[in-house]
Amino acid sequence: MYASRGEPRRRTPILKYPSLSNTQSCLMYQYDAYDQKIVEERARQFRGQVSRRLSGETTENEFKPLRLQNGLYMQLHAYMLRIAVPYGLMNSRQLRKLGHIARTYDRGYGHLTTRQNVQFNWPTLESIPKILDELAEVQMHAVQTSGNCIRNTTSDPFAGVAPDELEDPRPYCEIIRQWSTFHPEFAYLPRKFKIAVTGTPSHDRAAIRYHDIGVRIVKNAAGEHGFEIWAGGGLGRTPVIGKPIRAFIEYEHLLSYLEAILRVYNLHGRRDNKYKARIKILVNEMTPAKFTAAVEAEWLHLKDSALELTRAEIERIAKDFAPPAYETLEPVDLVGAELGKDRDYARWLKQNVQPHKVPGYKAVVLTFKEKENPPGDVSDTQFDAVADLADAFSFGHAVVTHTQNLVLRDVKVSDLPALYRRLVELDMATANYSLLTDIICCPGLDYCALANARAIPVALELNKRFDDMDYLHDIGPCSVKISGCINACGHHHIANIGILGINKQGEEAYQLTLGGHDSDSASIGRILGPAFDEAGVVDAVATVIEVYLAARSSEDETFLECYRRLGEKPFKEAVYAGD
Amino acid sequence: MRVIKDRQIVDDGWELLPADAEIPPSGDVIISVAAWNSDPLAHGERAGKVGVRLQSDELPEQIESLDRLPLIAIEFPKFADGRGYSNARLLRERFNYRGELRAVGEVLRDQLFYMARCGIDSFALKPGKDIEDALSAFEDFSVSYQAAADDERPLFRRVTR
After folding, report:
1. A291 interfaces chain B, CB cutoff of 8 Å
2. How far apart are the first and last CA of chain B?
């Protein structure tokens, strides 16, 4: 039973590691005096907004959009504060600050979100201005992490290190962050607005097709890099796959093109019904062709304006993302190591250690999906521990993934055994990245006032059911995502196996969807049949997996491939066999 | 009525008429786009000025003879309805409107900074709100990243970063 969430959490021992000498190299965007001024003035502004609310000058109705645009969201029991982590990237100082906030202002833990942000569930309203001051000290803020405005720009968690990347997308993410931060025209949009950018056209790890705007760095026939623009994707009550609206736009026109899309949306998006207010509805109601024509017409007015990006500005920002001082190392083949005697280590190498563009380095995923851990929850001491590990092994940085995990991006292969040993000591070495128990899960009825059903207990039950690591690895890649209501914050539509909590005659019940996918061959999952109770849905997932294992053409055929080959029939027959 | 104009509190006599109201022979009045468009020249001959109210579901290109208007009121029927921000920028930046742009409707202190950046220069605050306190809203930020009606250059073109 998952009711005692407010009690003190298991403490992870704090270990101290020697710091690398070069952890001071920046590797991420560094605020200049202008950026710093803006976050400090924001903290001051919000302090005034809170005091006007507390004095009664501002009504709760008037205060709501102000607090939302500062990431302050009213949940079932308390305020939740969502802190922006632009494209998920943090340095160790910021990680320690989050640990400190968890310890000082919350109940000892925070939560990694599907927008690569971090949220805290229990701060008091009075403490928020103080937290914002503390965040500003480490170049962080909570700007536009909720509300009907442009939200945190997300990206590929392996941006900058992925071997298949065409160009590092993060400088463009930062350019979009600055453009969208307190944009005076787009603070009161019809609905929230999400932008994702990927620099790997051959493999989308940022789910750009499910964003209001998806940006993909591509190469044109002349070999120049530019952007392919998608629009009108989104999840929520009506999941829609985005449409490509512009095949190629030169880099200097990025902001003018985004501004044109936002203006068309702001003026013409529906405001009569919040469930029909996202840009996906506008694109569909106008038709993609007419929407695109409207954007292009607006863009003609803007393209030669001062919004045009300069090479100097791109270089100013890109230099902060310059690679760290990698050593020149021999490429190392991990296959030999995987065959070692330590099966747990071999599994971890195979699953959580990901390719890196520099020979002798790997990216390592730390999954926050251990047995009794609500997916994505990170304790104060874990934040500190990850900061220490980042300093010791990964140039002092870590990235939040949209799957609610953390990545150490730059680990030397020769350091993997030492890193692994320390992760085992910290109980953070679960080898389940992108496997069935690497579950995305919304807060559900444990926290959220919108939810119809609890989501976290279902995830924990699935963890228990699939706790045999040999079995889990035999199943192979399989995404499971759980939403506690039709607003779909757990992204169940785009899971290979999706679970949706509903209210069935006053009881919590769960629908199963199969066949969703969030990457290049994007698809939306289909409801398999009538809903189950909590135990029933866990049984149903187990049955679906048994059908897959018996039916797959080889060990290489993934669950998704098998489902697409066979269709839903054998799964449906097996799951509802007793009915 | 007390309004904020060019960042000062002033009294002025503009009267916002309901859409279907009869237009009085004198006095400064703000009328609907449709009423204005029916005969822009005739309105210029009455005793008293005439301005137009642009509702949030109307667009600037619907207003005829823009350059004859001393004032356009941008309506914010609800503070969460953000269409007026785009309309204000379009009027300033695309239609080069140089008269007074007044925010009317549910106009609150915490929207003023954005409204001013979009080219709105006068503000009829929602009744009951502290107009003196609202004056300080223009100082909320001393730096902005974006190009807007108040400066066509984004920050990276305004300063050496």
Report:
1. no
2. 44
| CA–CA gap between residue A322 and residue A317 (Å, rounded) | 10
> Which residues, in sequence order, are bridge partners of residue A89?
A399
Give the whole-angstrom CA distance, residue A123 versus residue A120: 7
A562 Cβ contact list (under 8 Å, min separation 6): A548, A551, A552, A553
DSSP 3-state of A122 = coil
What is the C-alpha separation between A503 and A524, in angstroms, rounded? 22
Q: Which residue has the tokens 């690398």?
A: A20
- DSSP readout, A252-277? GGHHHHHHHHHHHHHHHS--S-GGG-
- Please state the ipTM of this predicted complex: 0.97
DSSP code, position A295: H
What is the nearest CA distance from B51 to chain A, expressed in angstroms?
22
Instruction: Say yes or no to pLDDT of A2 above 60.
Output: no
Contact A318, A251 (CB under 8 A): no
Q: Cβ of A184 and B85 within 8 Å?
A: yes
Say if residue A57's pLDDT is above 80: yes
The verdict on a CB contact (< 8 Å) between B161 and A179 is no
Q: To which H or E segment does residue A217 belong?
A: strand A213-219
Q: Using a CB-CB distance cutoff of 8 angstroms, which residues of chain A are in contact with residue B130?
A: 57
Name chain B contacts of A182, Cβ cutoff 8 Å: 114, 141, 144-146
Number of neighbouring beta carbons within 10 Å of residue B40: 16
Task: Kindly give the interhelix angle for A92-105 and A128-137, rounded to the nearest 10 degrees.
Answer: 160
Q: How many residues does chain B have?
A: 161
Integer Cα distance of A261 and A189 in angstroms: 12
For A235-352, where are the E strands, in sequence order? Answer: 243-250
Tell me which of A52, A267, A316 to substitute to probe the interface with B (most B C-beta atoms closer than 10 Å): A267
Over the stretch A7-37, which tens digit does the pLDDT of each residue have? 444 444 444 444 433 444 589 999 999 999 9
Taking CB atoms and an 8 Å limit, are B129 and A66 in contact across chains? Answer: no
Give CA A87 to chain center in angstroms: 8
Q: CA A307 from chain center: how many Å?
A: 29
pLDDT tens for residues A218-241? 999 999 999 999 999 999 999 999
Is A192 near chain B, with CB under 8 Å?
no
Provide DSSP, A381-413: HHHHHHHHHHHHHSTTEEEE-TTS-EEEEEEEG
CA distance A73 to A469: 38
Cα dihedral sign, A449-A450-A452-A453: negative
Q: Which residues of A touch B113 (CB under 8 A)?
A: 184
Interstrand relation of A480-483 and A440-441 (parallel, antiparallel or unpaired): parallel
Please count the residue pairs, one from chain A and one from chain B, whose beta carbons lie less than 8 angstroms apart.
105
Report H helices in chain B. 33-38, 40-43, 83-89, 112-117, 131-134, 155-158
Cβ of A185 within 8 Å of Cβ of B118? The answer is yes
Least confident of A161-165, A468-472, B22-26, B114-118: B22-26
Binding-site residues on chain B for chain A (CB distance < 8 A): 59, 79-83, 85-87, 89, 94, 108-111, 113-115, 117-118, 129-130, 133, 140-148, 152-157, 159, 161
Q: Cβ B161–A178 below 8 Å, yes or no?
A: no
Query: Residue B16: which of B77, B98, B82 has the closest Cα?
Result: B77
Direct distance between the N- and C-terminal alpha carbons of chain A, in angstroms, rounded to an integer: 28
